[in-house]
Automatic annotation (TrEMBL):
Residue ranges occupied by any Dihydroxy-acid/6-phosphogluconate dehydratase N-terminal domain in the UniProt entry: 43-354
Domain Dihydroxy-acid/6-phosphogluconate dehydratase C-terminal: 364-558
EC number assigned by the record: 4.2.1.9
Family matches, as InterPro entries: Dihydro-acid_dehy_C, DiOHA_6PGluconate_deHydtase_CS, ILV_EDD_C, ILV_EDD_N, IlvD/EDD_N, Sugar_Degrad_Dehydratases
Enzyme superclass (EC): lyase
PROSITE patterns in alphabetical order: ILVD_EDD_1 (PS00886)
Membership in a protein family: Belongs to the IlvD/Edd family.
Name under which the protein is recorded: Dihydroxy-acid dehydratase
Statement: the UniProt record of this protein carries the keyword Transcription: no
Pfam family, one: ILVD_EDD_N
Keywords, sorted A to Z: Iron, Iron-sulfur, Lyase, Metal-binding
Gene Ontology molecular-function annotations: dihydroxy-acid dehydratase activity; iron-sulfur cluster binding; metal ion binding
Length: 576
């Protein structure tokens, strides 16, 4: 049996227990909030970090969600404290929420460390909130568990189901090609987001919550439950009860998350056809647990992991279908030979125990191991003289003619340049061209926005072209698709080879060989490098300047250098 802490061993006891002037102040202020000793004496304090905001539709329900967690904490004899932290609303923050992921991670870490908290429940869902909260909580080194906000209901337009993001890109292309009317487009706007919850495709949000469950940081099955299903409230209450238990047993993920847990997460990512963004986030999360996760691990695991979940953007169905088909547990149950089933999870059980009884209820949505959608996962890591530190491509979600492709580059210096010239009739572009976007990486953009699914020229759309090979140092939305080489490192803004590409250069992609080659002689590249000048910095002060100074490249997870774990815990602040 796990040894249990005594009330005096609880962290919060160091704030409320001793009899001195400082603790007098703290207890008198608890009383000011209407609390009495019956609320805190001998009770673990469970912080509920709430990323609710009026401008985050994915977290619209988090006030009620937090109440359900509180109920669970109280039922189990703990003291709940709801604490707001930064809300990263994917659709509204400029230039990109990715610029602020590390800011939320820093806030999470410091909020947890500085307050009298014994365990934490993290409420997140919308893309960057999940990795940010987990990165911070791992660095704070407290027991915590994650309550995923849940996917929204399926979108619907007439007789068509609509998937977040994915169908917006699809019908935008149809509108520009003249295949649907402006009136149709307005109806799609009206029906694509029908309820609270995060994007219900297997985009970044669904991928990150699935990964988080696989890491063992949520209750089993939590990540697949639709946000508006009553079972979601019950899962939140159960998470509150579990957090109290974990405060007593000191079940601390920063101690149980090792390399094999992160490898399990990559298996899950590949099996569900997850977002390419997960690669950047997983590397960053692993860094906080002092685990090194080279890009090659993703490629190795991708090659041996079958894709089982038929979810958009790579497949057909949506998260609600996935939930009723058995959700993540039944997917993982098919893969136990590829997983380390002994990894411990936040309910104190192993991953194997958690998924042992999970069954598939709809074999169309979740394929069995014997009948996979593809024998391999959908993401490949590329190397070559154009990306010495790696690049990624989601080859499961693109036209297969690009698996091996060679074509002339059409280069855009930055996003404004792309927007300006995309539909210029004189742009020398054909269906075989390779679109190259520079200056869209962590420093160049800044913040490595989701610009990697470059829009196609109207002229090509009208001739029926729907995919083109595109290369950038940006990310792309997890709901996107197409032959997009992403995360090219080092990025153009710091003089990576991507900065040296010019119009007409031949570029060759070979997914099977995992290579991306710029067919320009080394001496010519050296000549161009000598001429190359960096663009002016985007920020000279404030958080933006800190970001530019400290952010690492995509293959290192884009965390700040000073936030990586060095294996030495940051000490708890002295109370006095
Ligand atoms: Fe929030 Fe997609 S916009 S999850
Ligand atoms: Mg997104």
């Amino acid at each position: 049996m796990t040894p249990r802490r005594t009330p005096e061993q609880l962290r919060s006891f160091r704030w409320f227990g001793p009899n001195d002037l400082r603790t007098f102040g703290q207890r008198s202020r608890l009383r000011q909030m209407g609390l009495g000793p019956e609320d805190w004496v001998g009770k673990p304090v469970v912080a509920i970090l709430n990323t609710w905001s009026d401008i985050n539709p994915c977290h619209l329900h988090f006030k009620v969600l937090a109440e359900n967690v509180k109920k669970g904490v109280l039922q189990a004899g703990g003291m709940p404290l709801e604490i707001p932290v930064l809300s990263l609303a994917e659709n509204f923050m400029k230039p990109t929420t990715m610029l602020y992921r590390n800011l939320l991670a820093m806030e999470t870490e410091e909020v947890l460390r500085s307050h009298p908290i014994d365990a934490a429940v993290l409420l997140g869902a919308c893309d960057k909130t999940t990795p940010a909260l987990i990165m911070g909580a791992l660095s704070a080194e407290l027991p915590f568990l994650f309550v995923p906000g849940g996917p929204m209901l399926r979108g619907q337009w007439r007789d068509q189901t609509l998937g977040s993001g994915t169908d917006a890109w699809k019908y935008w292309a149809e509108l520009r090609a003249g295949k649907i009317t402006q009136e149709d487009w307005c109806e799609i706007e009206d029906g694509i987001a029908r309820s609270h919850g995060h994007c219900m495709t297997m985009g970044t949000a669904s991928t990150m919550t699935a990964i988080t469950e696989t890491l063992g940081l949520t209750l089993p099955g939590a990540s697949s439950i639709p946000a508006s299903d009553a079972r979601h409230w019950r899962m939140a209450a159960e998470s509150g009860r579990q957090a109290v238990e974990n405060a007593w047993t000191d079940l601390n993920p920063s101690r149980f998350l090792g390399k094999s847990a992160f490898h399990n997460a990559i298996v899950a990512d590949m099996a569900v056809g997850g977002s390419t963004n997960a690669i950047v986030h997983l590397v960053a999360m692993a860094g906080r647990a002092n685990v090194k996760l080279p890009l090659e691990d993703f490629d190795t695991i991708s090659r041996k992991t079958p894709r089982l979940a038929d979810l958009r953007p790579a497949g057909r169905f949506l998260m609600e279908d996935f939930y009723f088909a058995g959700g993540l547990p039944s997917t993982l149950a098919q893969l136990l030979d590829l997983l380390d089933g002994d990894c411990i999870t936040v309910n104190g059980k192993t991953l194997r125990e958690n998924v042992a009884d999970a069954k598939i209820w709809n074999g169309e949505v979740i394929r069995s191991r014997e009948n996979p959608l593809s024998a391999e996962g959908g993401t490949a890591v590329l190397r070559g003289n154009l990306c010495p530190d790696g690049a990624v491509i989601k080859h499961s979600a693109m036209e297969q003619r690009f698996l091996k492709h060679r074509g002339p580059a059409v280069v855009f210096k930055n996003y404004p340049d792309l927007a300006k010239r995309l539909d210029d009739p004189s742009l020398p572009i054909t269906a075989d061209s390779v679109m190259v976007l520079q200056g869209a990486g962590p420093i160049g953009a800044p913040g490595m926005p989701e610009w990697g699914m470059l829009p196609l020229p109207k002229r090509l759309l009208e001739t029926g072209v729907r995919d083109l090979l595109r290369i950038s140092d940006a990310r792309m939305s997890g709901t996107s698709y197409g032959a997009c080489v992403l995360h090219v490192a080092p990025e153009a803004a710091i003089g990576g080879p991507l900065a040296l590409v010019r119009d007409g250069d031949m570029i060759a992609l070979d997914v099977a060989a995992r290579t991306l080659t710029l067919e320009v002689a080394d001496d010519e590249l050296a000549r161009r490098r000598a001429e190359w000048k960096p663009a002016p910095r985007h920020y000279e002060r404030g958080y933006g300047a800190l970001f530019l100074n400290e952010v690492t490249q995509a293959n290192e997870g884009c965390d700040f250098r000073f936030l990586h774990s060095n294996g030495k815990p940051t000490p708890e602040p002295a109370i006095h």
